[in-house]
Specification:
Number of strands: 4
Helix content: 55-70%
Number of domains: 3
Number of helices: 21
Strand content: under 5%
Order of helices and strands: HHHHEEHHHHHHHHHHHHHHHHEEH
Shape: globular
Largest sheet: 2 strands, antiparallel
CATH architecture of the largest domain: Orthogonal Bundle
Strand order of the largest sheet: 1-2
CATH topology of the largest domain: Fic-like fold
Radius of gyration: 26 Å
Oligomer: single chain
CATH superfamily of the largest domain: Fido-like domain
Distance between the termini: 62 Å
């Protein structure tokens, strides 16, 4: 009805066209579909099961619904190397996610206060390690989780190019106080990249194919130095708030910055890591510190491998690719997926805080008269009750509670002296393990 026949001369719409368009918009079946598509996003598989307006195919209906949704869309201001532009609409699902994220991720939220308190500190340390490993893997770096945890918790020297890169990535993500107030610029991005590869033997670094972002829209797109320079300027303008919709939610702009760094290939390599660093800097500057520390890459990796249920994230990675084939410019499914992954990460944080509080309360109740124990030692006991196979090390304890080495050592040796832990030597290091009858010693406290 609206499409110009291929090869036909261009002409101005006639009054007949306007009447036909008005009639279609008022047709009950199409009107109901259009209203729902704007609010809730009707995907292709769902549309194929619906009654269609008279005279329209599934594809024709899909295209018209997309056109209607486009009028209410928010555009991204950065085109891709092929010159394509992208847009999204905020569905009711997305708005609910944004409200949840904003409530729990701001600097004045209860979740942030809990992270600063001991209830969330252990989660924070573990989350940062897992996130560093995940973002490196998404950029193709091959490294085992056990080796990464040992490296980042123990403070030992790196033994391979992958471990050197992992240490650099962890520092890049979580030790950037010197650039927190600096505007985004091409020079800043270059410095971040140089820090990341400092001391890394690139020839000895084992890599897999790069895998980051929600789709592969730009796979194989060439990026010349000239186009990279242009994209970098546009990227920095968007990150600094000079372009884009001023009312755009912080969490969505952060998502687009993460994707843009990856897909526009702003750095010579490791764009996923650089993008995650920019993401963290951006949301921290916007007073969303909890969002900065959520393990988003960790959960994205789980989602991409098909390990997340549809009750948590609506679209699978295969469904995203299928929807993209119908309209490459519509980022709505990608944005919704990212928001739902973020909420899933936030739920994990809140559950962890609640578990820690309950365990601490149980241990305090059991040991309320034992004045010899400090809060760190009670937390260790709570952790040991929840996981009888847990292992504790002095350096890890020091990192988890931000105390001096001597204090961490005294904490764990004190628990050995009291009979809650026992000590073993592995190589040159000491490991502290829960006593097998710990729960019995504490009067029947049980594992969560």
């Amino acid at each position: 009805m609206f499409a110009q026949a291929k090869g036909a001369p261009n002409r101005m719409p006639s009054s007949h066209d306007a009447e036909a368009a008005t009639a279609l918009l008022q047709e009950p079946v199409f009107a109901a579909l259009a209203e729902e598509a704007v609010r809730d996003y009707i995907d292709w598989a769902d549309l194929t099961t619906r009654p269609l307006p008279p005279g329209l195919s599934v594809l024709g209906t899909w295209r018209l619904l997309t056109t209607v949704r486009r009028f209410a869309a928010t555009p991204f201001p950065i085109p891709d190397p092929k010159g394509r532009t992208y847009w999204y609409t905020l569905t009711r699902e997305g708005l609910v996610c944004i409200e949840t994220i904003e409530r729990h991720c701001r600097a004045d939220s209860a979740a942030h206060r809990a992270i600063l308190h001991r209830h969330g500190h252990r989660f924070l340390v573990g989350s940062r390690i897992h996130e560093t490993v995940a973002v490196c893997r998404l950029d193709g770096v091959i490294i085992a989780t056990s080796e990464a945890e040992s490296l980042l918790m123990s403070g030992r020297a790196p033994r391979s190019p992958a471990e050197r890169l992992l240490l650099n990535a962890h520092a890049l993500l979580y030790e950037l106080d010197d650039v927190e107030g600096e505007p985004f610029s091409p020079e800043l991005l270059t410095r971040l990249y140089r820090r990341l590869i400092d001391g890394v033997d690139m020839s000895g670094l084992e890599r897999r194919p790069v895998r980051h972002g929600l789709t592969d829209r730009l796979e194989g797109s060439p990026v010349t130095p000239t186009t990279r320079a242009g994209f970098t300027e546009q990227f920095c303008a968007y990150a600094n708030g000079k372009t884009g919709d001023p009312a755009e939610p912080v969490v969505i702009r952060a998502h687009e910055l993460l994707n843009s760094a990856s897909f526009r290939k702003l750095s010579p390599d490791f764009n996923g890591i650089i993008g995650r660093c920019v993401f963290r800097l951006f949301v921290t500057r916007q007073d969303y510190p909890v969002l900065a520390d959520l393990p988003i890459s960790t959960l994205y990796q789980s989602w991409a491998e098909g390990h997340m249920q549809s009750s948590v994230v609506r679209f699978s990675s295969k469904e995203i690719a299928r929807l993209e084939s119908y309209n490459v410019s519509d980022f709505t499914p990608d944005v919704l997926t990212y928001l739902q992954i973020t909420v899933a990460a936030l739920d994990g944080l809140l559950r962890s805080i609640q578990r820690t509080r309950r365990r601490d309360a149980e241990v305090r109740s059991t040991l309320e008269h034992d004045v010899k124990l400090n809060y760190r030692q009670r937390s260790v006991i709570a952790h040991a009750l929840a996981d009888p196979d847990a292992e504790f090390r002095i350096r890890e304890h020091r990192t988890a509670y931000n105390v001096a080495y001597a204090t961490a050592r005294a904490d764990l040796l004190g628990l050995v002296a009291l009979g809650y832990l026992h000590q073993e030597q592995r190589g040159k290091a000491f490991v502290f393990l829960p006593e097998p009858d710990l729960a019995k010693r504490l009067g029947g406290a049980t594992k969560e």
